[in-house]
Amino acid sequence: MIKKIIAPRTRFYNSIKHFKFFMVFTLLFSSVLTVNAQLCSCTIQEVQQNTVTPCNVTIGKTVTVSTTFEIRNAINQANSSGGNMTILIADGSYQIASSTSYPYITGNNIVIKSLSGKRDQVILSGGGMKPTSSTENVLGIAGNHITIADLTIQDCGNHGIQVSGHHLFVHNVHFKNTYEQMLKGATDANRIDSAIVQCSLFEYPNGIGPNYYIGGLDIHKGTNWTVRDNMFKNIKSPSGSVAEHAIHFWNQSSDNLIERNVIINCDRGIGFGLGNSPSQGGIIRNNMIYNDGLGVFSDVGIGLENSPILKSITIQSSWLIKMPLNIDLLEQQMLILEII
């Protein structure tokens, strides 16, 4: 059944009361849904249990590195040569970013991944989950066709990854303990096209974030992105205001696909648009969003703000469980609800 709704302001409230629905759905969801892209695949259960199959992608020259200096030097070499390089990182913890400098990728066709394929055995970090006087991202990415896979990114003053290039591919990455949003689409980019973010875990393991200016994906000017088969946990504000969304596209974003993600105990789930900064079109389908209501600022499962009627948004078969507010539409737009 398909319903088309044109609404200046409409709210759909939650009617599912019991946690058991969440558990049953998670088991069904994780056991039957898989994704395949660039020779990589996963289930949600594998993301949760840290058993995702490593990403079998290499490009050009391959180098293996085992120190912080070697990692940064390999990135510099890839940039200066124009790219076409695979950087394999040996198991270990590496502080590659600080408030004075961080790796910035400008070359194209570069793969950065763990040698072992085990995401928690290679840890790339900054100086800690704390405010800094200058920008501290673990990785800045301006190049095109960059792959980041099978590793952990954590502990920085700003973002785990900030991207302004096209065709980013993120697979089996554990993002945690960033002081701001974990994966940021840069505000100064003209457009950020055709990224894939899949099979990854975004979380604050202590159950709450460091401040309210946090989120999972916060993407400006993102077009034709696919965000699928990821898990988001505990993106919650401790005080001041509500945290940003687990997945958020706005500020001239358009035509993005958000599917088969599990979002647990985050202040806000999925957002298209914000205030006067729209997101056009796109599909939100087969996601599961659950909130136990214990957070100070538990808010909305799916929020649509200022998304024009010219290009409709589809929400299909998404489960929203125990959210204070399930779907919130602000400003006039067309929403197509596909209920199966």
Automatic annotation (TrEMBL):
Q: Which UniProt keywords apply?
A: Signal
UniProt cross-references to Gene3D superfamilies, sorted A to Z: Single-stranded right-handed beta-helix, Pectin lyase-like
Q: Which residues form a coiled coil?
A: none
Organism superkingdom: Bacteria
SUPFAM superfamilies attached to this UniProt entry:
Pectin lyase-like
Indicate the secretion signal residues. 1-37
List the protein's name. Right-handed parallel beta-helix repeat-containing protein
